[in-house]
Write a structure and sequence with these properties.
Layout lengths: L1 H20 L7 H6 L6 H12 L2 H15 L4 H29 L5 H8 L3 H33 L4 H49 L3 H9 L21 H13 L5 H8 L4 H26 L11 H4 L4 H6 L4 H35 L9 H29 L4 H25 L5 H20 L11 H22 L5 H8 L16
Length: about 500
């Protein structure tokens, strides 16, 4: 217990120290929200990766999908690395950085407002962000409940409050730069932690080959009658597995807290290096989490999924590790959760301030007032998410994966297509953008409220979210082609940022 407490105290001290160290970089909106658009490749890549993977992944998704699909759940991690990280950086990174600076936008809703010349789009997007960030944020805390219950004799409510306060302090003090530096530190912990945990868990079952052999002997006739199905290449249910891969991989392309990392990139070199670093990080962390979860059924004697739920699987796998390793796991999941939490509260508070309050409720806001409002809203947002997390935990409303699936599906379904087309296609219209907003957010709201009325395949919020994203890629161009063209002079002016010459086109180099 002493080892675990000392590890936690050291971890918290470093996080707070970084927050106060970065105060000098958080005096204006550009510095507080984007780090002055001067963040290097390592910090940006780790900020992207740690915002991507949280306790939702490690406890909720790894446990649930490892149990459902066996070792084939590793495909989710591979998809996260190749589509959610590498392709996202290659397709979105450079153009997002160029156009967002050209339009002087610091948030995704502000980008929509400037790109399509529509205040309505800006306000609608900010509303979607704020509403759907809340269940996602609440799910982050829930992922810690089982692990803290296993490692410490502390009331879970206290754990939630302590984590929220510490995260809030360093984000409020140091802004984006404090978040980025802490994300880097937390990312290092996540990399080493997941490797150590995988080795320890597999060793407890006789090593990798022995564990794989045991998994081949597991059978569950309610899932599949095929022998060794949990040890197979595509698992017992490849169709639903594809839905998970799409939601968790392609979804990052439309999530504000992910895309806004590209706004702050320093240089061309940062994009090239950041792509490699981010891909490798996702491969180790996401691939490792789902690979570990794939062996969950070997611990069926330690957990009753029917009564305890999927969220109990990963803690059951870790229960008999050494105290030092359990301490490392707790810090690993704390790192994953705090890094994602800091990104979410920064995104939601800056969006609400810049895109909703500024110019609508308060007509004139200078930089100091905006930063003050952002800091105040960080506190408000954290308090709301803590209350919801405690309510959700006490009443056991739903699984972690369902909370995250609804949030990811709504935001990515609404934003992915209009953001992507907005960067590349001049013919994209605000009507096409709004249609995607309505369909993506509307589908997920209906899925929440009227789930029983949906076809079997779409009862899952994960599959519904995947459908929302893919449908958006069709809806935006179709609606854009049948609605009025944007003003040619305005659109040429917006896209002129890509034609600016230094010694090469800026689409090839930011330098």
């Amino acid at each position: 217990m002493l080892i675990k407490i000392l590890m936690l105290l050291l971890f918290f001290s470093v996080m707070l120290g970084v927050g106060f160290y970065c105060r000098k970089n958080a005096t204006d909106v550009g510095g507080f929200v984007l780090g002055g658009r001067n963040v290097g490749p390592w910090l940006t890549a780790f900020a992207y990766g740690t915002s991507y993977f949280s306790a939702v992944i490690f406890v909720g998704y790894a446990g649930q999908f490892g149990w459902k699909y066996g070792i084939a759940s590793t495909w989710i991690g591979i998809g996260n690395a190749l589509v959610g990280s590498m392709l996202a950086w290659r397709v979105l990174g450079r153009r997002t950085r160029i156009m967002s600076q050209h339009l002087n936008s610091a948030t995704m809703p502000e980008f929509f407002g400037e790109r399509f010349g529509s205040k309505g789009l800006k306000i609608s997007a900010s509303f979607i962000v704020f509403i759907f960030m809340i269940p996602y944020t609440a799910s982050l805390y829930n992922g810690l409940s089982r692990l803290f219950g296993m490692a410490f004799d502390i009331d879970y409510t206290v754990c939630i409050i302590v984590m929220a306060i510490l995260t809030g302090v360093y984000v409020i003090a140091g802004g984006y730069m404090a978040t980025a530096i802490n994300d880097f530190i937390q990312g290092i912990i996540m990399l080493f932690g997941i490797v150590a945990v995988i080795l320890a868990v597999l060793n407890s079952k006789g090593g990798f080959l022995a564990a794989l052999d045991q998994l081949a002997k597991v059978s569950d006739e309610t899932v599949s009658t095929t022998p060794g199905v949990f040890n197979s290449f595509f698992g017992p249910d490849p169709i639903n597995l594809i839905g998970v891969v799409i939601l968790t991989s392609l979804g990052t392309w439309g999530l504000p807290q992910m895309v806004q990392k590209f706004y702050a990139i320093k240089s061309e070199q940062s994009i090239t290096k950041g792509t490699i670093i981010s891909t490798l990080f996702a491969g180790v962390v996401a691939g490792g989490c789902y690979f570990l979860g794939g062996f969950g059924r070997l611990f069926s004697d330690s957990v009753d999924v029917a009564t305890e739920g999927y969220d109990a699987i990963i803690p059951a796998m870790l229960r008999n590790l050494s105290p030092a390793l359990i301490g490392l796991v707790v810090i690993l999941v704390l790192s994953a959760s705090m890094s994602t939490l800091s990104s979410l509260v920064m995104t939601s508070s800056s969006t609400l301030t810049i895109d909703f309050i500024k110019g609508n409720i308060i007509k004139k806001m200078d930089d100091k007032k905006q930063v003050l409002w952002i800091r105040a809203l960080i506190v408000v947002f954290i308090i709301i998410s803590v209350i919801l997390a405690i309510i959700q935990y006490k009443s056991n409303v739903t699984f972690i994966a369902q909370l995250m699936g609804v949030s990811w599906g709504a935001m990515a379904g609404a934003f992915l297509a209009p953001f992507l087309y907005g960067l590349y296609w001049k013919r994209t219209t605000k009507a096409g953008c709004m249609a995607s907003f309505i369909f993506g957010a509307g589908l997920m709201i209906c899925n929440m409220l009227f789930r029983d009325a949906f076809p079997v395949l779409l009862k899952s919020p994960i599959n519904a979210g995947a459908l929302a994203m893919i449908a958006g890629l069709i809806i935006v161009p179709v609606v854009s082609l049948i609605t009025k063209k944007p003003d040619q002079k305005e659109i040429d002016k917006i896209f002129s940022c890509y034609d600016k010459k230094n010694q090469v086109p800026v689409t090839q180099s930011l330098e």
